[in-house]
Design goal:
This protein is mostly beta strands and about 375 residues long. The protein is built from five helices and 23 strands. Strands 13, 15, 18, 20, 21, 22 and 23 form a seven-stranded antiparallel beta sheet that branches. The protein is globular and about 70 Å long. The two termini are about 40 Å apart.
């Protein structure tokens, strides 16, 4: 949703633009919990509706710069029992500088109940959780255990506090601080992952994080970009087999016409295609399997190289508007060495020959492009 208002001020036209983008619960193929999202972000929708000329009317004078406010709601993480929404708000509505903020909201998948720290852990957990989180934060930031947080990390105080913002992921709790929460505007707000392996003794075995007590619990990732939603999962299905399932869903009514898409999966540690026991993709899609030693094009170096590990590439045609959902299933021999790591990357070819690539984690793969990463069996 987008809207725009303009006025004449100081002999020039100044405008206010407002936008809101959130998941569509009415699109086929989305998870069942999407039906809860409209109610869970109703406050965001109300805020968008209020975005208008009233912003200017409340100001002491007419603005001399264009104003804007962009709000987004994304499903940023999923686990077997939970999902997490990321609500962001950025813009300029007067003042010294632009503003930006975000909020993680965690919910149960079966009934949409909002979750906080107290719903995840047993007993009097707060002191221990804070102490463990501080150790992990200091280690991730390269700080000594006795380093002054004010002097060494730019905190307001030399005292660690748990953030209100956290996301439940399959690997751990992603703890994030907003601007001005513990550091000034000039300092990048801290963000770090608190692995479940560090807090297993605190987890309620009957609660939403019970899956994390099993080292072989399923790992799930969701990405959205390039007018598509990518869902990946890794799970142990028996004593000898590991299965990866991928669902690629193209969003309807996009402004960009694409001709072709590629989803690339790379498996560091796996060399031969013999470790891939089974593979299945939709009819019409092309599946390429490239063992270590195959000749692949290195995009950063702009030359062909020999692959260092196994790679699987799913290629789909985007010209058939009726086919908007694609599936891929891979089964591997359960690896003895853990963790099992899979890099993934998504790219699309536009009609004009331009290749767009989804923005993912800055983990550079063997072909010189950034990848997302899935890690199972930590």
């Amino acid at each position: 949703m987008n809207k725009r208002y303009c006025r004449i001020a100081k002999r020039r036209v100044v405008c206010l633009e407002c936008s809101l983008h959130s998941p569509d619960a009415n699109v086929s193929g989305v998870p069942d919990f999407y039906r809860f999202i409209p109610d869970q972000v109703a406050d965001v929708t109300v805020h968008y509706r209020r975005c208008g000329p009233g912003y200017w009317d409340e100001a002491e004078r007419m603005p001399d710069l264009n104003w804007y406010e962009n709000q987004t709601v994304d499903v940023t993480a999923m686990t077997p029992n939970t999902y997490t929404l990321l609500v962001t708000d950025e813009g300029f509505t007067g003042g010294v500088h632009e503003f930006n903020g975000f909020e993680y909201r965690n919910y149960l998948r079966n009934d949409g109940k909002r979750l906080g720290y107290k719903d995840l852990f047993k007993g009097d957990f707060n002191r221990t959780l804070t102490a463990v989180a501080e150790r992990v934060y200091r280690r991730s930031a390269g700080l000594a255990s006795d380093a002054d947080l004010r002097k060494e990390a730019g905190w307001f105080e030399n005292r660690f506090v748990l953030p209100e913002n956290f996301a439940i992921t399959t690997r751990g709790l992603l703890l994030s601080y907003n601007t001005y929460e513990v550091t000034p505007h000039a300092v990048e707000p801290p963000e770090f992952l608190l692995p479940y392996s560090q807090i297993r003794s605190l987890i309620d075995p009957e609660g939403p994080l019970a899956f994390a007590l099993d080292p072989d619990h399923p790992v799930i990732a969701d990405e959205e970009g390039l007018d598509a939603v990518l869902h990946l999962s890794i799970a142990k299905i028996d004593a000898r087999t590991l299965e990866i399932n991928v669902t690629l869903r193209y969003l309807p009514d996009t402004d960009i016409a694409y001709k072709r898409s590629w989803l690339t999966l790379q498996f560091p540690g796996l060399k031969d295609s013999d470790t891939l026991l089974e593979h299945e993709s939709d009819k019409g899609d092309r599946l390429g399997i490239y063992p270590a030693g195959s000749r692949l094009y290195h995009y950063k170096a702009k030359k062909r190289i020999h692959a260092r590990w196994l790679e699987v590439e799913l290629e789909t045609s985007d010209t058939d508007e009726e086919v908007t959902i694609h599936h891929l299933r891979l089964r591997f021999r359960l690896p003895r060495k853990r963790p099992f790591v899979s890099y993934y990357r998504f790219a699309r070819l536009q009609q004009d020959g331009t290749i767009d690539r989804m923005s993912v984690e800055a983990k550079v793969g063997q072909q010189g492009l950034p990848n997302g990463i899935l890690t199972w069996g930590e």
